[in-house]
Design brief:
326 residues, alpha/beta, Rossmann fold, ten-stranded mixed sheet, 10 helices
Length: 326
């Protein structure tokens, strides 16, 4: 029996995730039912209105939000698995009010972006980000990534960012490596990720509901007060994306080694993590990443969960704002 399942005494094994897996973020309910035509090669008309997008080199359409004036310093947000840019709306509105330009995209196979069959790996994720950045000609940008999005952001900054990047923020992020190996004995066993895939394949809807109801936000902890709205919003976002993309994405976030990416990043980096993160255990992530980075600030919040950007947005927003405005 997985130690993760022990935290759910009244739930079936299928209903919860094994071990402490990686993270995730949000989507829009009426999204993939796109209605309309491309305009200028970059805009897709959806039933809910016009949404900006970019066509990647392999033909995938990546949808993004771009809010605010074009001249202020841009902040690019990278969401977690299996969610979408919707997960960042609290942060986007906050930093928009502070005078920044804010951008967030739906990863391929997530949210409103194309549910393509291939390309669900960190190299392709980073290339998709580069396509968005280049189309918008973003410079002096700050990149903020949560969980899987932290891995995506780290790979983008290391391989594509160059002079376009000013700073990086990693929150509950999967680097340097989630999987347990001889070189990474503190990681999680492959069985934990195999179990995640099997639950997703068996009943994705039930699995996502139970995951959001329990460990993601720490709602399974004694004294916690679960929010139905938060749980259903997480479920909504997850179910909007592609099951194939989410299934393949498990390998991307769990088995990608970001060690060389972290060592290559020259931009000042803020590393934030919840001390009670049940998804990406802090001991094998944040402190190790901070040591590998050239210029890092490490912040660990005792008792806070993986979904800290939602449960404690005031703390997260203040820490990011302090770091990027210094």
């Amino acid at each position: 029996m997985s130690p993760f399942i022990d935290r759910f005494p009244n739930a079936s094994r299928r209903g919860v995730l094994a071990g402490g897996i990686s993270c995730f973020a949000s989507l829009d309910a009426c999204s993939t039912a796109a209605a309309g035509e491309e305009a200028n090669g970059a805009t897709l008309a959806l039933a809910s209105g016009r949404v900006d997008s970019v066509i990647t080199s392999d033909g995938a359409q990546i949808v993004y939000k771009d809010w605010g004036a074009k001249s202020p310093q841009p902040i690019v947000f990278h969401h977690g698995w299996p969610l979408s840019s919707d997960d960042w709306e609290t942060q986007m509105l906050f930093f928009l009010s502070k005078g920044y330009r804010v951008i967030a995209h739906d990863r391929r196979g997530h949210g409103r972006s194309d549910p393509v069959s291939e390309g669900h790996d960190m190299d392709r994720y980073a290339e998709d980000v580069a396509a968005v950045v280049e189309q918008l000609d973003l410079r002096n940008a700050i990149h903020v990534g949560h969980s899987t999005g932290g891995g995506e952001a780290a790979r983008y900054v290391a391989r594509h960012g160059g002079s376009r990047v000013a700073k990086l923020v990693l929150i509950g992020a999967v680097p340097p490596l989630m999987l347990k190996t001889e070189a990474n004995p503190g990681g999680l066993p492959i069985a934990a990720f195999d179990d995640l895939r099997s639950q997703l394949a068996a009943n994705r809807s039930e699995f996502y509901f139970n995951f959001a109801s329990g460990p993601f936000y720490g709602f399974n902890r004694p004294g916690a007060k679960p929010s139905k709205a938060v749980i259903w919003n997480w479920w909504r976002q997850g179910m909007t994306g592609s099951a194939k993309a989410h299934y393949d994405g498990v390998k991307a976030f769990s088995q990608t080694d970001f060690t060389e990416d972290l060592k290559a990043i020259a931009a000042p980096t803020l590393v934030l993590h919840g001390g009670d993160d049940q998804i990406v255990p802090v001991a094998a992530s944040a402190p190790l990443s901070a040591r590998m980075l050239r210029r890092s600030v490490l912040k660990i919040y005792d008792g806070l969960p993986h979904g800290v950007c939602t449960t404690h947005a005031d703390i997260v927003n203040a820490e990011i704002f302090s770091f990027i405005s210094a």
